[in-house]
Amino acid sequence: MSSQMLSTAVVHPLVLLNISEHTTRTLAQVKRGKITAPQYMCGAVLGRQVETKFEAFLSFELKLNEASTERAEFDLEHFTVRLEQLKIIFPSYDFIG
Q: In 3D, which of 15, 74, 14 has the Cα closest to residue 39?
């Protein structure tokens, strides 16, 4: 990424919808007793930066390793596979956060 200051940041509605849906679904499962409340909810954002304009186009949830109790550790294999799948469809997007 450029060291210039960003002048515009655009987050597309799909990113916001994915974050909202993931949070709502997780909280509903906790309420029904199907899962215990997670300590963390994590996701990945894909997009691009052109000069001083930053755009976030896509997001997906990160699968956390349930065996880790002291800190959040995500499943690197799941992340890598999912990122590679999306890069095939959207080759101009980069993992941005």
A: 74
